[in-house]
Write a structure and sequence with these properties.
Length: 436
């Protein structure tokens, strides 16, 4: 944080003394006003539900320029990473601050693949779930349960523990997601095969059976890898902030990441990819392209509670760069599978075009986000809809860990403890039952 010469001055209309507050500059983005001494100096809190104007931390990991529609991981544009790197390069970058050289790449790959198996006991734990449980319910449980299996990596204040926990989580998430899937469909679990790429191994654990040889399709593996890269981190979103807040109490890394998984599940966040595809399927079932006008009318009706899922973002007030890349991947995957005429993709493109020309969306700067197209890609690859958010969680795990570790290493970090504006009943006395 670079202090600025400019100070922010807060004054009060009732004549109470005003105060000066320091201003800091980041590498990019708006300056921040340091309000940490505000309460001590004025006896007042700030009020900012939803963190609309609050920077909760300083971070060196990810930067979003919402007006330009730009996303940088450690300074590198997402488009270049998606083009020139794979997911494990991206993990290395997010965790360590720069891209690996050839040797570092090899070593990191080996390190991660050494941890892809999960404790055999996890299977029995998994079997306690109903087979029709939502994969995110299962994953929240499985990730939390890791802390019951890996006692040598649960001390968040020990850098070695944090390092091993990070690698374990990145390595084991694909195994856990695939196990949750296989359990749901009643097929045998497929163990990891470490000579495959990270995404290739995941696809094999998902789609192979012991009865037949399985060879992952390169185009689909690349698409899956791109999904992972695009979802790897996204600065202080709801689940990342949850992980930071949870970890700020000193809890173990697996528990903190499980909290992130739980938060991601919601339809306003990671659950939007599932919700977006369900929405497209609904429109398709009820008349398809012909019915888009009617659907958009409902979306615009304040009383309907219907949203155009996969559209809008707290930070992006322009096209989400991840959505552009995902649309490109969508073309590639559908081309590879001979599904050029996929009705869902056509419907999505028509819906996007209509929304982008409609004043409701234009005036509110609502553009497609990553979830608008990622569902179509995943569905084409053969991923069942309820598993979409689990795949998002798999990919976001590295971002959560990088952010958690950054927080622990920050000398300014404290347990997260927001304050409130209390508007409940004033102090009162308990009356005996017959007087209430
Ligand atoms: N469809 C219709 N109207 C919308 C939508 C939408 N998808 N998104 C925002 N609006 C309207 C909203 O009703 C409000 O209108 P008004 O000013 O008339 O009250 C205005 O646009 C501003 O919206 P907001 O709810 O104040 O914005 P927010 O920053 O609080 O919410 C959001 C952001 C992502 C939760 C919201 O846009 C949304 O619910 N989108 C659909 C769900 C979705 O696709 N989520 C995925 C986000 S990207 C992946 C991730 O990072 O998890």
């Amino acid at each position: 944080m670079t202090p600025s010469d400019v100070k922010a001055t807060l004054s009060f209309s009732d004549g109470s003394p005003g105060i000066d507050m320091p201003l800091y500059k980041g590498t990019h983005g708006p300056d921040v006003i340091d309000i940490r001494k505000l309460y001590a100096q004025t006896g007042k809190f700030t009020y900012d539900p939803g963190f609309l104007s609050t920077a909760s931390c300083q971070s060196t990991i990810t930067y979003i320029d919402g007006d330009k529609g730009e996303l940088l991981y450690r300074g590198y544009p997402i488009e270049q990473l998606a083009e020139k790197c794979d997911f494990l390069d991206t993990c290395y970058l997010l965790l360590k601050g720069d891209l690996p050289n050839g040797q570092q790449q090899k070593d990191f790959h080996k390190l991660v693949t050494n941890h892809t198996m999960v404790n055999e006991q996890m299977q029995f734990f998994l079997r306690g779930f109903r087979r029709d449980a939502h994969p995110m319910a299962v994953l929240t449980g499985l990730v939390g349960a890791l802390s019951a299996f890996y006692h040598d990596s649960t001390d968040i204040n020990n850098p070695q523990h944090r390092e091993v926990a990070a690698i374990r989580l990145i390595a084991k998430m694909p195994t856990l997601v695939a196990m949750a899937y296989k359990y749901g469909v009643g097929q045998p679990f497929i163990y990891p095969q470490n000579d495959l790429s990270y995404a290739g191994n995941f696809m094999r654990m998902m789609f192979a059976t012991p009865c037949e040889p399985y060879k992952p399709n390169d185009v689909l593996v690349r698409a899956m890898d791109r999904i992972f890269i695009l979802h790897a981190d996204h600065e202080q979103n709801a689940s990342t902030s949850t992980v930071r807040l949870c970890g700020s109490s000193g809890t173990n890394p697996f528990a903190a990441i499980a909290a992130g998984v739980a938060c991601l599940w919601g339809p306003a966040h990671g659950g939007a990819n599932e919700a977006a595809l369900n929405m497209l399927e609904d429109i398709q079932r009820n008349g398809g392209v012909e019915k888009i006008g009617e659907f958009i009318k409902q979306v615009k009706d304040k009383n309907s509670n219907v949203k155009l899922m996969g559209f809008g973002h707290r930070v992006y007030k322009n096209y989400d760069p991840r959505a552009k890349l995902m649309r490109e991947t969508c073309h590639e995957v559908l081309g590879e599978l001979g599904l050029h005429d996929d009705p869902m993709f056509k419907l999505a493109m028509t819906l996007e075009k209509i929304a982008l020309e409609d004043d409701y969306f234009v005036s509110r700067k609502l553009y497609p986000n990553v979830d608008f197209y990622s569902g179509i890609v995943q569905r084409a690859i053969g991923i069942p809809v309820p598993l979409f958010t689990a795949i998002f969680a798999l990919a976001r795990t590295v971002g959560w860990i990088a952010q958690l570790n950054e927080m622990i290493g920050d000398p300014e970090y404290k347990i997260g403890r927001p304050r409130q504006l209390y508007t409940g009943a004033a102090r009162r006395d308990v009356k005996s039952v017959d007087q209430r």
